[in-house]
Amino acid sequence: MEPRREDQNLAPRVSGKGCNIKFLNLELIFDHMGHFGRLQILLYFMCAYQNVSCGIHYVSTIFMLITPAYTCKPPGEVKRAVFQNVSSWRLEEILTLLSPGQKDHIAVELQDGEIWELSRCSRIWRENMSHLDYEYSGYKHNIPCSDGYVYDQSKWENSVVTRWDLVCDRKWYVDVIQPFIMFGVLLGAIIFAYLSDRPMDTVRIAVIGAGVIGLSTAVCISKLVPGCSITVISDKFTPDTTSDVAAGMLIPHIYPDTPIHTLKQWFRETFDHLSTIACSAEAADAGVHLVSGWQIFRSIPTEEVPFWADVVLGFRKMTEAELKKFPQHVFGQAFTTLKCETSAYLRWLEKRVKESGGLLLTRRVENLWQLQPSFDIVVNCSGLGSQQLAGDSTISPVRGQVLQVQAPWVKHFIRDGSGLTYIYPGASHVTLGGTRQKGDWNLSPDAEISRHIFSRCCALEPSLHRAFIIKEKVGLRPVRPGVRLQKELLAQGGRRLPVVHHYGHGSGGISVHWGSALEATRLVSECVQALRIPSPTSKL
Ligand SMILES: Cc1cc2nc3c(=O)[nH]c(=O)nc-3n(C[C@H](O)[C@H](O)[C@H](O)COP(=O)(O)OP(=O)(O)OC[C@H]3O[C@@H](n4cnc5c(N)ncnc54)[C@H](O)[C@@H]3O)c2cc1C
């Protein structure tokens, strides 16, 4: 049965079989958090110690509830006692001869001459006080056992039974003590397990995808949404994602269905975020740095000053002198922007996810419903994978091929205004691009295309003829008319799974990732709130 979608904007369906996610078992959690180590050994022995003391406590009742031989206490001091044919001056000595369960009595003579027959739970006063015989057929009175009991202390000096006189009509107390303790253990297990879980009422969030969009969203959620546990599930991690192929330049691309003001806000937030990193000690680790250069045009563009001009640094028109370097071009923009060494940046983001307690799982997700009920919320950042995962036919690949070359003398970026040819210097190599092949799924580099890219770039920067090619790379841009940032509620058989879709960043995902991740985090936050305050008319 398919999960029902409570969202009007997406026609296609996810085929859900309603099965649990099988791979999220204990072993995998150990794989990611580390196996049996010193901490676990310490915790094991602490628990073992506690369990041993609990165990002793449970079995202690066997010894503490011992019932020794006993008899009803006479109303005065015993002078002499007789049990069958044995006689003694001390009642305690005779008492040791009694065995539990026997029905015999002890005949005793008290200091005042009264003669009593003492049984376990009753005592009889003999009217005839003339002689102390064991058998007596005269007149007698049955008197209640109101003075307590005398116990055989030869083996056990004390027990719970002797201390509280849990014999005769109070014997049933002994029978219920053990079940009572076990009932207390059961009750404690239920109540305290519940109470200890209450403060850890975490919302389990699965983020699908470990490209720049998935990882940055996971980091944002972990920073901004309290009380969540985050698991990034992806079939590929760095260095095997599209994001790893990206040149990583912060120059926004226009999406027809995403409003410019939204795009500008995402770009500004991304620029500010990466600027802070670039100016920090983290810069090298995160692979983020400032880079200056030119964007050049063969004809005057309709927008001489693009919408993002006031976000990048020092935006200006190129001077005549600068343009002389590019005789084929008539117009140019000079500015300083940021560049991400994407593989380093993805590693850095993965580290942030792990530091915040998140898990990274290498698995392919076949359908979103599969994550129910292991997770409370799913964030779909699967890029091109959403074609199948979200059944979205509006997303398609636009193939891009780039070369990584060794040309350390190239320090300025050069980008043809069409965005097709570019030279982007980075920390360890220069990226030369590129191609835009719509609907092409081929991930193998094409030698002919590489030669073409190289010659186009050499035309812009002739010194590149001396460059040494290190690598050819191919990536499939997840292109869609607009970035999909949207909540959806999957439902099946009374169960629900809130999903936040966050994909379709096409040619400019690096440029806007942080801003759109913040937006996705706001949507996740709304889902978390809806889960915490459940209402029948949830507005998810
Ligand atoms: C050649 C080239 C150059 C580029 N240069 C730039 C640039 O300079 N500046 C810029 O801003 N942008 C650039 N881009 C665009 C940028 O690379 C993308 O916009 C961005 O990488 C998209 O990120 P993503 O996380 O959505 O996708 P991806 O990086 O493709 O990540 C998707 C993730 O989802 C996972 N996944 C998919 N399906 C499933 C599934 N069913 N189960 C589990 N996991 C799944 C994948 O394994 C992957 O980890 C360039 C792209 C290319 C190809």
UniProtKB/TrEMBL annotation:
PROSITE patterns on file: DAO
Domain FAD dependent oxidoreductase: 204-522
One GO BP annotation of this record: L-aspartate catabolic process
Enzyme nomenclature, EC number: 1.4.3.1, 1.4.3.3
InterPro entries xrefs: D-amino_acid_oxidase_CS, DAO, FAD-dep_OxRdtase
Keywords for the protein's UniProt record, in alphabetical order: Cytoplasm, FAD, Flavoprotein, Membrane, Oxidoreductase, Peroxisome, Transmembrane, Transmembrane helix
The keyword Transmembrane helix appears for this protein: yes
Entry keyword annotation includes Transmembrane: yes
Main location, first listed in the record: cytoplasm
GO cellular component terms, A-Z: cytosol; peroxisomal matrix; presynaptic active zone
Xref: Pfam families: DAO
Transmembrane segments: 41-66, 176-195, 202-225
Compartments reported by the entry: Cytoplasm, Cytosol; Peroxisome matrix; Presynaptic active zone
Example of a GO MF term: FAD binding
Cofactor dependence: FAD
Record field: catalytic activity: D-aspartate + O2 + H2O = oxaloacetate + H2O2 + NH4(+); D-alanine + O2 + H2O = pyruvate + H2O2 + NH4(+); D-dopa + O2 + H2O = 3-(3,4-dihydroxyphenyl)pyruvate + H2O2 + NH4(+); D-phenylalanine + O2 + H2O = 3-phenylpyruvate + H2O2 + NH4(+)
Superkingdom of the source species: Eukaryota
Similarity field: Belongs to the DAMOX/DASOX family.
The protein's role, per its UniProt record: Selectively catalyzes the oxidative deamination of acidic amino acids. Suppresses the level of D-aspartate in the brain, an amino acid that can act as an agonist for glutamate receptors. Protects the organism from the toxicity of D-amino acids. May also function in the intestine.
Identification of the protein by name: D-amino-acid oxidase
Species in which this protein is naturally found: Sciurus carolinensis (Eastern gray squirrel)
